[in-house]
TrEMBL record:
Catalytic activity: L-threonyl-[protein] + ATP = O-phospho-L-threonyl-[protein] + ADP + H(+); L-seryl-[protein] + ATP = O-phospho-L-seryl-[protein] + ADP + H(+)
EC number: 2.7.11.1
PANTHER family linked to this entry: IG(IMMUNOGLOBULIN) AND LRR(LEUCINE RICH REPEAT) DOMAINS, LEUCINE RICH REPEAT CONTAINING 53
Keyword list, A-Z: ATP-binding, Kinase, Leucine-rich repeat, Nucleotide-binding, Repeat, Serine/threonine-protein kinase, Transferase
Region (Disordered): 1-31, 788-832, 1048-1143
Protein name from the UniProt record: non-specific serine/threonine protein kinase
Length: 1156
């Protein structure tokens, strides 16, 4: 029976033959020139072989010289005094010169003088060192190949650096220690450096030799392959065997053209964890990692290659999770000889993949699957999150070289519940989500921070101080609580290797104290609010709504581990304690009722089926109904489809936003794919993209100037051209077709709401486009149908879905609004006919300041009818909330045309109603953030139009406020207060009662607690239809009364019973109609706002005057009741505004204001 050693030898000689270093392709193979050998000097020892171009005759020298063809090859066999002359005689046509095996110490300059057409020179097996190359070699402009194998070079000869046409360079078996200057040879395609003394391959090497296809560096002293290898995008064949490598970077495996990786005979003990996506599947022909120190079976590599050699490592088990996947790779040549295998047993492994599959199939029947848990790893950038996850999953020390995570990365890991190799041991499967701490990515994180997850709050203990509490813990706790009113977390301190254990413990204790105090403070501040409202004598509907919100917030669930878990990824310590802490947390059945429950095996089959499907699909995104049809068509179980899908979502197998009104229409079959979709756009290094390295741009025929223009647009205007997105997505959608790109883009805009389209090209079916959002800066016109998208040319059909409510329409936040119904329609339309969006603007990426032009323009409307609502977030506002408001504002249904959009503001126009909307984010020093929405009418106030203007303002404002409510309603722990600004002092004096308007609608004025002025309620809530009709009637009556008064005046000029008096006995010019405002600076406005809030919250801010003034008269503020500048109409009545009001009961006071 053959021993393992013999089997391995057989492998080596047979199967490995296919990928052994390929002989460097020679110029003759490539140019198809035939080279018959000619022996120079027939009776003596030959001194040279000559080759003729195109010679077909067996003995060409017998041919007359005219038919011999030109001499193209010359191989010197023996040095002779006449050899130089001989070479010279054929110099003009010579393309190949072979000077190998001549014991040369240097190359005679005369030998190569005048070889102007020389393409290949071979100097193998000589004694030439770096000084042995003549200067005139630099004149060989056509030289594409130089071979100096087996010489005495210790560094790259300086003169060789000048051979800019060189494509193939073979310097194996020298004494090279450095490759300095090689970066000048930018055209190199083949580089052979085997058997030298190289210890490093420099950064320059990788960044300049971008055309390399073959790189062979075996038998050197390399200790690492830097991640800069990613620049070698054309590399097909990498041989770094027989070096001193301890790991390989992930970049090697994902090079777009890589076919062969030979890293055998090193000391590799860890490999990167790579998510094998569609494009990476079985891309490589061979991966050779034999004779290394691997402990973990690199499962992902099985799906990337046709041949995986893992012989002579230290692998003990093949993960059980692979059971169902092994039969997906039937063609795989898997070699596991000489590993201390226990699962499957060694003899099973030795018999090949088929036996392994068989073995697993047998144990599968008795195996049980248990539900796993999703783990969100959060913390600021550079704290050690990725290093920790990789240390945990690879079961050995791993630290990144400081590279930031782009967006989110996914990992998987199993924690064994018992210490045993038994395959049937119960395990907890973790789906680990590694979130980047970079602020640029925070926006996209919201889509992946899902409920029912365990959170690891990771911080660097060696650099921790109390001042960092907020960034390390506070903001993450706030975010999770805001989103779901719940957090179950384990604080994890990294970098333990840099601290003494006692210090680490002290920091851990302090952190736990701070966390407890932080949570207690949140709780007591909520309790204070409840008490404050409870203590009021009268609780209005709006206050009661607020009370309800606070009571709900008080139900928050905060569950943390008892203590900080201390780990070191550098030393692989503390991982077991972390696993124990995780197990303890998930053991809490209240927090994780489903984790570790036994899953029916059929569900497992559904998971595998969906997994396969996800990998098979170009765009692994399905509409819910299609997905249901697919799964139930194969497995039945229609009644369980929701439960199975939720199970898959909770364990990170798919993404399905079951609680989102429109996103629940889609199932994302491969989470990593969706993550990559976001990653491609929200990259922190987008401005550092190098055109020469980004092949996809060239493939899409994008020139460098266009590329630069598109990148500048992103950096300066946060605007992405569709072509740019297409190229950035080239790895997630491998297709030249626009359709999937457009479809995905539409889903991102319509459902994920990452931005809005700024330029829309009409699709063939225009009705589909009209349902897609537009920022309408410009619209590309091509044909008449394009006009449908212009806001001022909105067709009645496209307004069908408008959510502008009729007066009195009831709105319930979070309920299926008309908007979401429209969303459902959109998702169907998106699938059938995706709109042709040209550019999108992502507000989150905007970093521009308020434009000066805006200020000028907006101030020109001060003094016009206006209303300003404010959403106040007293403690915390989650990333992206304001940006979503801006995106909602520009949805079709609001009919708003964008005028300016900057980081903290959006200014838009409602053309039909003649209303300007200004949406603004204001951050206050006390940590609160206000989002104010102000609408101003474009027209000046006149008696006739005021009422209509107010109505037009509310028609714009209210639907938008409700849309904002819809965004907030998705966050179950949202802490937010609603206000209306006082039009006089601009303080937040009035509770925002747009959700509960009835009470306010019943009164006419309400006093501002900040400035003590009475404000017409028409400016605080949308007036009731009935009331407005009454006011209209009333106004007419007033007008008639005034006419009669004037007539009466004329008749009784000397005896005027209606002398002009102010209600308070003075004629204060400040006491103007609420709508006539003095423009305020934003500073004074903010102060007024703050003052208003404090007063509102400190006193009985909800006090309404029910139409009764302090003097006991009833005041009816008629909007726009001024006659003209300089005169003001005041009305007094001793009756309420009942519709039965009689003309003769109205007292009209006309105040002349001559000083205005
Ligand atoms: N000494 C020591 N260094 C560590 C440890 N963990 C991480 N590092 C180093 O800390 C730096 C940051 O580590 P990462 O794991 O990349 O940090 P991250 O939290 O994933 O950062 P982002 O991806 O930007 O959010 C790297 O240079 C690591 O080598 C540790 O336990 N000990
Ligand atoms: Mg990271």
């Amino acid at each position: 029976m053959a021993t393992a050693m013999q089997r391995r030898a057989a492998h080596s000689s047979k199967s490995r033959g296919t990928y052994q270093p390929t002989e460097m392709p020679s110029i003759d193979q490539r140019t198809n020139i035939r080279v018959p050998t000619y022996t120079f000097g027939s009776n003596l020892r030959p001194i040279a072989h000559l080759g003729y171009e195109g010679a077909r005759h067996l003995i060409p020298e017998r041919l007359p010289s005219s038919t011999r063809g030109r001499t193209v090859g010359f191989r010197v066999i023996d040095l002779n005094h006449s050899i130089v002359d001989s070479i010279r005689s054929v110099a003009s046509s010579l393309r190949r010169l072979d000077l190998s095996d001549l014991r040369l110490d240097f190359v005679d300059p005369e030998m190569i003088d005048g070889l102007l057409r020389l393409e290949r020179i071979v100097l193998d097996h000589n004694r030439i060192d770096e000084n042995g190359f003549p200067d005139n070699i630099a004149r060989l402009d056509h030289l594409v190949e130089l071979s100096a194998h087996d010489n005495c070079l210790t560094q790259l000869p300086t003169i060789i650096r000048k051979l800019r046409s060189l494509q193939r360079l073979k310097l194996s078996e020298n004494r090279l220690k450095s490759l300095e200057g090689i970066d000048k040879l930018k055209r190199l395609q083949i580089l052979v450096l085997d058997e030298n003394r190289l210890q490093v391959l420099s950064k320059e090497f990788f960044s300049h030799l971008k055309r390399l296809e073959y790189l062979h560096c075996s038998r050197n002293a390399l200790t690492a392959v830097p991640s800069d290898v990613r620049n070698l995008r054309l590399l097909k064949d990498l041989n770094v065997s027989h070096n001193r490598l301890t790991s390989l970077p992930a970049e090697v495996f994902v090079l777009p053209n890589i076919e062969v990786i030979n890293a055998s005979d090193n000391q590799i003990d860890r490999l990167p964890t790579i998510t094998v996506k569609g494009s990476l599947k079985r891309k490589l022909t061979t991966i050779d990692l034999s004779n290394n120190l691997l402990i973990r079976f690199p499962a992902h590599l099985m799906f990337m290659t046709g041949r995986l050699d893992l012989c002579s490592n230290r692998i003990r088990t093949i993960p059980l999770g692979l059971i169902d996947k092994l039969d997906q790779v039937p063609e795989l040549q898997l070699m596991l000889d000489e590993n201390p295998m226990s699962l499957p047993p060694q003899d099973v492994c030795a018999s090949g993949l088929r036996s392994i599959v068989q073995y697993f199939m047998e144990i599968k029947t008795v195996m049980r699957i248990h539900q796993g848990v999703r783990v969100l790893v959060l913390g600021p950038t550079g704290q050690g999150k990725t290093s920790l996850i990789q240390t945990m999953t690879d079961q050995q020390a791993r630290t990144t070289d400081g590279e930031r995570t782009l967006g989110v990365d996914l990992y998987e890991h199993n924690i064994s519940l018992e210490k045993s190799d038994d395959p049937l041991t119960k395990r907890l499967h973790l789906s680990l989500w590694d979130f980047s701490g970079e602020t640029r990515y925070l926006f996209q994180h919201q889509y992946f921070l899902q409920p029912n997850s365990l959170v690891l709050l990771v911080f660097n203990m060696a650099e921790y101080s109390a001042a960092k509490f907020r960034s390390c813990f506070g903001i993450w706790i706030d975010w999770m609580l805001f989103r779901m009113n719940r957090i179950v977390a384990v604080p994890v301190g990294t970098h333990a290797d840099r601290l003494k254990p006692a210090k680490a413990k002290q920091i851990g204790d302090d952190v736990m104290k701070q966390i407890r105090k932080y949570v207690a403070d949140i709780r007591s501040s909520i309790e204070r609010e409840i008490k404050r409202i409870d203590s009021k004598a009268y609780i209005s509907a709006a206050l009661s709504e607020q009370l309800e919100m606070y009571r709900n917030l008080l139900r928050m669930e905060v569950l943390t581990a008892e203590s900080v878990v201390t780990v070191s990824s550098k030393e692989n310590s503390g991982i077991e304690q972390l696993e124990e802490a995780i197990l303890k947390m998930v053991d809490n059945k209240d927090a994780f009722p489903n984790v570790l429950r036994e899953i029916p095996s059929l569900w497992g089959e559904v998971v595998n089926f969906i997994d396969d499907k996800g990998y098979a699909m170009q765009v692994p995104m399905m509409r819910w109904d299609e997905y249901v049809a697919l799964v139930t068509g194969k497995f039945g179980m229609r009644h369980l489809i929701q439960a199975i899908t939720e199970f898959m979502h909770d364990t990170g197998k798919i993404i399905w936003y079951s609680d989102h009104p429109t996103l629940r229409d889609y199932v994302f079959l491969r989470p990593s794919w969706l993550v990559d979709v976001f990653k491609a756009i929200f990259r922190h290094d987008i401005d550092q993209l190098d055109y020469s390295l980004e092949e996809s741009f060239r493939q899409h025929n994008i020139s460098q100037p266009k590329f630069e223009k598109m990148i500048n647009e992103v950096v300066d205007e946060a605007t992405f051209d569709r072509e740019l997105i297409k190229c950035l997505w080239s790895s997630v959608i491998q297709s030249d077709f626009n359709r999937p790109v457009l479809e995905l883009l539409a889903v991102l805009l319509e459902h994920f709401e990452i931005g809005y389209a700024t330029v829309i090209r009409p699709s063939r079916n225009t009705s589909a486009i009209s349902s897609v959002s537009k920022g309408n800066i410009t619209t590309e016109r091509s044909g008449q149908d394009c006009l449908d998208f212009l806001p001022n040319a909105q067709s009645p059909a496209s307004r069908k879905g408008s959510i502008t409510p009729r007066v009195g329409e009831k709105y319930e936040p979070g309920s299926a609004t008309s908007r979401s119904k429209q969303g459902e329609k959109s998702s169907a339309e998106i699938r059938t006919n995706p709109p042709r969006i040209s550019k999108i603007l992502i507000p989150w990426l905007l970093n521009t300041e308020q434009p000066a032009k805006f200020r000028e323009e907006y101030q020109s409307f001060s003094g016009h009818a206006s209303a300003a609502s404010v959403f106040r977030f007293p403690k915390y506002i989650p990333p992206g909330m304001f940006e979503k408001f801006t995106i909602r504002a520009l949805k079709d249904e609001h009919d708003l045309t964008k005028l300016y959009h900057w980081k903290n503001g959006l200014y838009a126009r409602h053309i039909q109603n003649g209303v300007r909307l200004y949406l603004q984010r204001i951050e206050h020093d006390d940590g609160s953030t206000c989002i104010s929405v102000e609408c101003r009418h474009e027209s000046r106030l006149t008696d006739e139009d005021t009422e209509k203007q107010v109505e037009q303002i509310w028609q714009v404002l209210l639907p938008f406020l409700k849309d904002c409510e819809d965004v907030i309603a998705k966050c179950t722990g949202a802490r937010m207060e609603r206000y209306m600004e006082c039009p006089y002092c601009r303080g937040l004096s009035f509770l925002g009662e747009w959700l509960t308007p009835k009470e306010l609608q019943a009164v006419d004025v309400k006093m501002c607690d900040n400035c003590n002025r009475d404000v017409s309620t028409s400016f605080l809530v949308q007036p009731k239809e009935k009331k407005r009709v009454e006011e209209f009637l009333l106004k007419r009556l007033l007008e008639e009364a005034e006419k009669r008064r004037l007539a009466f005046d004329e008749a009784t000029t000397n005896n005027d019973p209606f002398s002009p008096v102010c209600e308070n006995g003075d004629n204060n010019s400040d006491d103007i109609h609420p709508n006539v405002m003095t423009p305020m600076t934003s500073d004074s406005r903010n102060k007024a706002n703050q003052k208003g809030v404090e007063k509102q919250r400190g006193t009985n801010g909800d006090r309404a005057r029910s139409g009764t003034t302090s003097k006991g008269t009833v005041r009816i503020n008629v909007p726009g009741a001024e006659k003209s500048p300089g005169s003001r109409l005041r009305t007094h009545s001793n009756r309420t505004t009942d519709s039965s009001i009689q003309e003769e009961h109205i007292l009209v006071t006309l105040t002349e204001q001559t000083n205005e």
